[in-house]
Amino acid sequence: MDRFDLRGKTAVVIGGSSTLGGAMAEALAEHGARVALTGRKAENAEPVRARIESAGGEARCFAVEATSKADLERLLEEVLQWSGDAGGVDILLNCPGVNSATPFFDITEEEWDRIMSVNAKSVMLACQIFGRHMVDRGQGGSIIHLSSASSAPPLSKVFAYSASKAAVNNMTQFLAREFAPARVRVNAIVPGFFPAEQNRAILSEERVAAIMGHTPMGRFGDPKELQGAAVFLASDKASGFVTGTLLRVDGGFGAMTI
């Protein structure tokens, strides 16, 4: 029995146009899931869709503002129409994220609201809409959030981002408890340092040196190294008794002290 077989499953990847979200979406498709990819513009996710389909998988791109409840409700309807006889959404992967290195005393209310909205509010809304769908459907499901090594303890220079990802961790464990009776599992992947568009601006030479000094494996992660964790958490056969877990994929960053 292939415990990582996702054939017959429909996955929605919020932020599927991103570097990390796209890599994990490709892995879900590789293991048989039909994958709905989202971005603010549908064409933003086209490169990921093309890679999935060239490898023999099935995917479609959807334009979604992840912080809009109306957009997410529309997304659910469109995915249900697209999936047809499959019957519903089985996997939700929440990957939207923005970052900033603004010094604490210079953070504006607008910047705080933007980061909290994209990184935390979007997760709450997606879980309300897709979580209710999974609970009401009565066939279980898997919700996976993308957290951060900065969620706990928080890293320097990224105050709002750290607070938003700490909120994601809290929501993960809260909802794992709430959804468990319906066999809907809620977990988070806690990645270490994977160079992506959202963090390139804060990766100065000095900061890179500090990161490498605190990472026992002494290197950045490759986005493909998140794929196994995503497939594991998506599969009921592989992780059916796993919920409320914050799964670190960080090269040992979280284990390092002195």
UniProtKB/TrEMBL annotation:
Keywords: Oxidoreductase. The keyword Amino-acid biosynthesis does not apply. SMART domains: PKS_KR. The keyword Oxidoreductase applies. InterPro entries: KR_dom (IPR057326), NAD(P)-bd_dom_sf (IPR036291), Sc_DH/Rdtase_CS (IPR020904), SDR_fam (IPR002347). Signal peptide: none annotated. It comes from the Bacteria. Residues 9-192 form the Ketoreductase domain. Gene3D superfamilies: NAD(P)-binding Rossmann-like Domain (3.40.50.720). Belongs to the short-chain dehydrogenases/reductases (SDR) family. PANTHER family: 3-OXOACYL-[ACYL-CARRIER-PROTEIN] REDUCTASE FABG, SHORT-CHAIN DEHYDROGENASES/REDUCTASES FAMILY MEMBER. This is SDR family oxidoreductase.
